[in-house]
């Protein structure tokens, strides 16, 4: 029995990891609990799952220890819980857009191309990470993100916890599905510094920011036929934020943003050029409705309700948003500046 369960876990997790073998899994058969150690994760698969923009690439991901709890008899309603100890991720920016993100790894691993049970189970996974370090290398600067006590979990359209069956809105007429995820953390430390080889005017002005108890809300829209992500809406929500910047740090931030602008623009153009025609979903709808309507007299009302609900929360195109409840931004002169004493305080 233990061997069978190991095979089931490997079948779905092997797509996320490299060289995962049964001897790395310590599994409690009755409790549905397992443990994995020293995992190297598959970069391309993670890019597909996270729907990263093509100007950003994952180079390497390592996890020292992971534990998993699987509610075998309640997979439709209760999430699989995955707990990670420490994760280290190395990323880089791309001057030219990389290849577009592919289909869901779970769909391809389970031998199916459509959005099915395996995809629903994996999308509902709750992930907890004690510590995660993300290092990003760019042409003009290096950046690092240190996050503590991060949690990723599924929610309904109103951003509330509940039954996993209500964390998605599936519209067969459109051939699309919306899923909702929330990410929160206890603390994040962000630092960016110019590279030695860069030609920026500001060479010695590292930018630092520390925030507490923030969250990200993500809405994903996928195609049912191949599980590809069509569009993503990401909202970063911060509470009160106090940020003190020197004049040179502010200039450095502007330079860092300029160094990425061309790559981001190319990636955006690539995504627009590969976007599906807007008329595709509307052409499928009539035939789907004609087939399903005779099955029950309540089908039209149910279909109308689904269409309205989907439209209310639909993601038309990929977008990123920042919401800050209160921002205190202090800009001051550098310590070594010839003229001291200048201070600008902005309250939002």
UniProtKB/TrEMBL annotation:
<dbReference type="InterPro" id="IPR026728">
    <property type="entry name" value="BLTP3A/B"/>
</dbReference>
<protein>
    <submittedName>
        <fullName>UHRF1 binding protein 1 like</fullName>
    </submittedName>
</protein>
<dbReference type="Pfam" id="PF24917">
    <property type="entry name" value="BLTP3A_B"/>
</dbReference>
<feature type="region of interest" description="Disordered">
    <location>
        <begin position="267"/>
        <end position="297"/>
    </location>
</feature>
<feature type="compositionally biased region" description="Polar residues">
    <location>
        <begin position="278"/>
        <end position="297"/>
    </location>
</feature>
